[in-house]
Amino acid sequence: MKRYGNLWKQVISFENLLWASQKAQRSKRFRNNVLEFNHALEDNLLQLQRELRSHSYQPGRYRTFEIFDPKPRIISAAPYRDRVIHHALCNVIVPLIEQTFIYDSYANRTGFGTHRALRRFTKFCRSNRYVLQCDIRKYFPSIDHEVLKAQLHRKIKCRETLWLIDLIIDNSNLQEAPVVYFPGDNLLTPFLRHRGLPIGNLTSQFFANVYLNPFDHFVKEQLKAQKYLRYVDDFALFSDDRTFLLEAREAISNQLATLRLKLHPIKTQLTETQFGANFVGFRVLSERIRIRNDNLRRGRDRIKRLQRRCQQKQISNIEVQNSLTSWRAHLNHGDTWRLQCTIFDTLNLG
Questions:
Q1: Inter-residue contact 334 to 291 (CB < 8 Å)
Q2: Which of 8, 81, 198, 323 is the most buried (most CB within 10 A)?
Q3: Buried-exposed string 11-38: b where 16+ CB fall within 10 A, e elsewhere
Q4: Are 349 and 299 a contacting pair, CB within 8 Å?
Q5: What is the pLDDT of residue 350?
């Protein structure tokens, strides 16, 4: 296994920090914290560079808030200067480690994403009789720091870069991790191990892919699952052999235990593809793809909020149209043309 060294100069170079700041401010450049940072951009980047070079850099406190749709989750927002550091680190290490990912890992990767995953899922679904769909229980809060660091240390040997990686992981804010026991644990083990990555960090999204990368290779190489794909912690195996998938489920559960993870007992299901399957907000049927009702409801609510803000002169009609472009493109991946016409015509936004 190749390990990468001599990365630190790339990470802390002024050019990389500048590039990181440009990426961190995308779609956020008019926010107060971004404007304040950019007002003295060169000085702030040089200060970050000095702190990194001297190992005196310390992450700031997270701002946390809870969302309830589609499910209750705690979102953590790092201070803007920390987000610049996250981008600077990922600029260097992501292209190196991503080479080891399997082809059918779709989350948080340039050129992949939900729609490409949906097309692949649909292809597998319509060419196989059975699908085993799995979901990991409380994935981000359950990620074990010790296991994650060991995986990253096997990929990277640059001591300074590992210092920064460990610092970011160690300064993750507390997550609501479930109390779960695994073989070999004693009564206190779940309380002594540090777990959880903050949802919202760029580094957390990448580390989440790294964490399940050995599992992906296990499914492909040990279980010999030819048709398998994963999007974050949602993954699916397809086959015409129901017995193979039943046996795979048991092997998957045991393998996830080595990562101190457990399958969601309700969301993990083995079904026949002829009855349809849900994936990334769509329901894939044998002859069509429908957007799920909960996604449709959220989309309608979003449009109404935009229309209300437009009527109150908080945003322009052009901004409304631009905001709806991505959602309309999302709808286009399903058989929703009549639905789109109804929604947009009703709100006079089409």
A1: yes
A2: 198
A3: bbeeebbeebbebbbeeeeeeeebeebe
A4: no
A5: 45
**So what's the pLDDT on residue 210?**
97
Question: What DSSP line would sit under 306-335, residue for residue?
Answer: HHHHHHTTSS-HHHHHHHHHHHHHHHTTSS
| Side-chain-facing half-sphere of 104: CA atoms under 13 Å | 22
The type of residue at 251 is A
pLDDT at residue 330, as a whole number: 63
Rg (CA), the chain: 22
Strand extents, DSSP E, the chain = 63-67, 73-77, 130-135, 228-231, 234-239, 269-272, 277-279, 282-284, 289-291
3-state secondary structure of 113: helix
Count Cβ atoms below 10 Å from residue 240 Cβ, excluding itself.
12
- Residue 191 to residue 286: CA distance in whole angstroms: 46
pLDDT, residue 301, reads 76
Q: What is the pLDDT of residues 212-242, one digit of tens each?
A: 999 999 999 999 999 999 999 999 999 999 9
Q: Taking the model in full, what pTM does it have?
A: 0.86
Phi, psi of 227 (to 5 degrees): -115, 95
pLDDT of 88 reads 98
Q: With DSSP H G I counted as helix, E B as strand and the rest as coil, what are the percentages for the chain, rounded to 5? A: 55, 15, 35
pLDDT tens digits along 127-147? 999 999 999 999 999 999 999
Instruction: Say which amino acid occupies 301.
Output: D
Which tokens go with 268?
């993990």
Q: What are the residue ranges in the chain where pLDDT is below 70?
A: 1, 68-70, 319-320, 322-350
